[in-house]
Amino acid sequence: MVVIMNLSPKSLVKKVIKKVKKKLKPVILGIYRTACRILPINKNIILFESNLGRNYTGSPRAIYEEMVRQGLDKKFRCYYILENPDVLLPGAVKTVKRSRFQYFYLFAIAGTWVCDTRLPKYIEKRSGCTYIQTWHGTPLKKLALDMDTVFMAGEKGIDNYKKNFYDNAQTWDYLISQNHFSTEIFRRAFAFHKEMLEIGYPRNDVLFAKNNAQDILALKQQLGLPLDKKIILYAPTWRDNEFYGKGKYKFNPPLDFGELQNKLSDEYVMIVKYHYLVMDQVDWTPYEGFVYSCDLSYDISLLYLVSDMMITDYSSVMFDYSLLKRPMLFFCYDL
User: Fold this and answer.
1) Nearest to 106 by CA among 53, 69, 164
2) Cα–Cα distance for residue pair 29/35, rounded to 1 Å
3) Contact criterion met (CB below 8 Å) for 218 and 206
4) What is the pTM of this model?
């Protein structure tokens, strides 16, 4: 009782909700597993998810928007899984909040899944369902079964991590690869032996379709970027040993933004876009007018288009950005 009295009303509500969710989870999972056994699969339903539901981006977005262009969003029942279901999306798609009852129901009956990351291990892949894994990067760093160590939150050692990854990859029916180099690594690192679609990442199609003065101007105006200055995109990767919770990583920028502002602000501005796993809320107000921070919801492909150069480290964004044939600076401060 003393503990409860010391909590603010807001904290108390959060604590109660967390406990209720914990109690309900096994019940919901039980209903979900039963639904997987008794409900028929609906081949007309397609589920999309990007970045664990954190935003509407990447190849799942590109595939869905191509469906809209062809009018296929009206032929199929499309659902997009998002943590924020209030996001307005084009076409006839409906949004679904992640981990709610409808989320589990749709996973139980959907005929097709289109995702760019692993799904939680409690999601069961039914034999009549088609799972298209688009993935989300070029394997410059070791990944999955090729890894020697793992520091990610929620993982109980490298052996457990590899087992979970292997089990998940065996549920994929199709895996998209952007080139032969990636195909060979994906085969080995994911132990993937089904159909590989070596077609390039759908998310990069926009780099060809909108790489023109008119579309770039419209994007700059949409973002509120100055039209009389050059734009530097800073897009570092995440560090798996810098976490503070499962799927939540810190952002410790090594750049001195104050010094950069002093030296460059007459001619340049910077856009900072960090990895979707980085959940830190960084205060950029000291650099107002020089640093423009884009939240998780903004698709990095569009930021490539508005920028004149990019600073990164060993993130695989380098391969996507190279399609534009613009300058890149590699700041690998911890290698």
Assistant:
1) 53
2) 10
3) no
4) 0.85
> Which 3 state secondary structure label does DSSP give 330?
strand
Q: Which CATH architecture best describes the domain 210-330?
A: 3-Layer(aba) Sandwich (3.40)
Interatomic CA distance for residues 184 and 197, integer angstroms:
12
Q: Determine the Cα–Cα distance for residues 36 and 49; give it in Å rounded to an integer.
A: 20
Are 50 and 79 spatial neighbours (Cβ–Cβ below 8 Å)? Answer: no
Tokens of 4: 């409860």
Q: Is 27 helix (H, G, I), strand (E, B) or coil?
A: helix
- Amino acid letter for position 149: T
CB-count burial class (<10 Å; 0-12, 13-18, 19+) for 72: middle
Read off the pLDDT band of 279 (50, 70, 90): very low
CA–CA distance, 185 with 175 (Å, rounded to integer):
12
Domain ranges of the chain: 39-204, 210-330
- Four-residue CA torsion sign, 242, 146, 334, 117: negative
Identify which of 44, 84, 78 has the alpha carbon closest to the alpha carbon of residue 63.
Answer: 78
Pairing verdict, β 195-198 and 110-115:
unpaired
Residues in Cβ contact with 283 at an 8 Å cutoff, skipping those fewer than 6 apart: none
pLDDT digits (tens, 9 = 90+) for 43-92: 999 999 998 898 899 999 999 999 999 999 999 999 999 999 999 999 99
Instruction: Look at residues 200, 198, 205, 146 and name the one whose alpha carbon lies nearest to residue 174.
Output: 198
Q: How far apart (Å, rounded) are the C-alpha atoms in residues 185 and 192?
A: 10
Residues facing 48 on adjacent strands: 80, 114
Beta strands in the chain (DSSP E): 42-49, 77-82, 94-97, 110-115, 130-133, 174-177, 195-198, 230-234, 243-245, 248-249, 268-272, 291-293, 309-312, 328-330
Tokens of 29: 């999972």
Assigned fold of 39-204: Rossmann fold (3.40.50)
